[in-house]
Amino acid sequence: MSSFAPASSKKAKKRAAADGVDGEFFPGIQKIEYRPDAGPEDVLCFKHYNASEIVYGKSMEEWLRFSVCFWHTFRGTGADPFGFPTLHRPWEDGSDSMENAKRRLRAAFEFFTKLGVKYWTFHDRDIAPEGNDLAETNRNLDEVVDLALKLQDETGMKLLWGTCNLFANPRYMNGAATNPDAHIVAHAAAQVKKGLEVTKRLGGQNFVFWGGREGYHTILNTDVLAELSHMASFFKMAVAHKKKIGFTGQFLLEPKPKEPTKHQYDYDAMTVIGFLKHFGLEKDFKLNIEPNHTTLAGHGYEHDVVMAAAFGMLGSIDSNTGSPDLGWDTDQFPMDVKNCTMVMKTVLEMGGLAPGGLNFDCKVRRESTDLEDMFISHVGAMDAFARGLKSAAKVLQEGVLTRLVKERYLSFSSGIGARIAKGTATMEECEDYIMQKGEPKAASGKQEKFETILNHYV
Ligand code: XUL
Ligand code: CO
Questions:
Q1: Centre of ligand 1 from the C-alpha of residue 314, in Å
Q2: Single pTM value for the model
Q3: What angle do CA 9, 14, 18 make, to 5 degrees?
Q4: Which ligand is nearest to the CA of 165?
Q5: 10: pLDDT confidence band, cut at 50, 70 and 90?
Q6: Which pLDDT band holds residue 205 (cuts at 50, 70, 90)?
Q7: Residue whose CA is closest, atom 2 of ligand 1?
Q8: Which of ligand 1's atoms lies nearest the C-alpha of 123?
Q9: CA atoms within 13 A on the CB side of 452
């Protein structure tokens, strides 16, 4: 994520001031409609996402639970390490003022409503500027949250999750929960305390922890066991505070292998599951899987979604994609129907993601500079997921893949296989079995057959 306001300019200030409190920020863009017969160049309508249509026993809206993230869509400027901001939004005056923060929030709620999503997500520091100390920062946050509550009431929007930005401020350059200085760990905890409280006020259904700088750049200066233990203690404090204030949202930990640190402790789904189990936190957390992080870890697109779900730990998905030919977190909109099918197949198999959802942790390219590109990108990704949902439903309804997978493991349903699966077999027993039955026959894995069957549905 990057959330730097564009350089201020007189023109931008004038433009922003011209927008009254109730002004329209996206004039000329109507509520996005479902138009299944629209042509290829009609990109401001849904051709597949039909919120109320029933697929596999539930409405599309219930299965998909789309959410817009505030940081990329309303704080992204298009700035990259090589160039200045390219995305100049008319409501931005370039300042870090409360007035600008509130105007930006109004623009966001108009966007959510016109797009027709029900959920949004934010980091504390995306929505309100930091003050000179924590007390002032908290006051700023409360004031913006008051407005967010009002806008949620007016529009029916809900908060999928809140989170704390524990990585942008220089104080966190050596980590937050894993910082070698306890003073900074305490600051991070104080920030999360407030983050939990405002997320509760907004009715947040989950709370995310992404350990942006919880890792190391060189192992030479790092006590990894101390840092991991401190991180676990930090999460235990959060669990205690959650209980104390009666926040009932689901805690989610978001894996990522690297960037900004060389090694991030929450490397991938299995690493995080191992960490949670080791420190006795597995009952209090699930995972928020972001496929672009999964591919950065060297896995296939759906790998972490599948692994987390297999262990009953899939909580939510930051549905984005990377460029397979690049080695960093490009946070692109998911447009590949086959990827979406694989994700939705897992979501259908587990009976739905609620209280999690599909959060678009995605940013338009810095070259996609038109205001309408904000809509086109989300609409395109929602349609890709709607197609993924429909294909996944067909895969499961016809049950061919499910049956073939089941058949591969049939030998575990009786005899020695059942005893191995149950964990009651012994090595002596296996030896006797082989002495009697002889050499096993190797069966074809039929990869190409499975791939061809998937293609039949997508
Ligand atoms: C960073 C990332 C974050 C988290 C929330 O790569 O994905 O935006 O989703 O902090
Ligand atoms: Co994310």
A1: 16
A2: 0.95
A3: 150
A4: 1
A5: low
A6: very high
A7: 1
A8: 10
A9: 4
Separation of 291 CA from ligand 2 center, angstroms?
Answer: 9
Distances (CA, A) of 193 to 64, 144, 243, 252, 443: 30, 17, 12, 16, 55
Q: Residue 209 pairs with which residues in a beta bridge? A: 253
CB 450 within 8 A of CB 395: no
Regarding the beta carbon of 208 and ligand 1, being less than 6 Å apart is answered yes
Ligand 1 in reach of 329 Cβ (< 6 A): yes
- Mutation probe of ligand 1 site: the residue of 304, 361, 363 with most atoms within 8 A of C-beta: 361
Task: For residue range 275-296, list pLDDT tens digits in order.
Answer: 999 999 999 999 999 999 999 9
* Whether residue 256 has its Cβ less than 6 Å from ligand 1: yes
Separation between Cα atoms, residue 97 and residue 318, nearest integer Å: 29
Q: Is 3 exposed, middle or buried (0-12, 13-18, 19+ CB in 10 A)?
A: middle
CA angle 270, 274, 275 (to 5 degrees): 120
pLDDT tens readout for residues 305-315: 999 999 999 99
pLDDT at 18 over 50: no
Instruction: Compute the Cα dihedral for 345, 349, 350, 353 and give only its sign.
Output: positive
Ligand 1 neighbour 210 (Cβ under 6 A): yes
Nearest Cα residue to 66 out of 54, 53, 49, 42: 49
**Catalytic, out of 123, 293, 299, 378:** 123
Find tokens 């006795």 and name the residue.
280
- Residues paired with residue 318 on neighbouring β-strands, in sequence order: 359
Q: Which atom of ligand 1 is nearest to the CA of 256?
A: 6
CB 385 within 8 A of CB 353: no
pLDDT digits (tens, 9 = 90+) for 96-152: 999 999 999 999 999 999 999 999 999 999 999 999 999 999 999 999 999 999 999
Cβ of 306 less than 6 Å from ligand 1: no
Identify whether 123 is a catalytic site residue. yes
Q: Count of CB atoms within 10 A of residue 72's CB?
A: 22
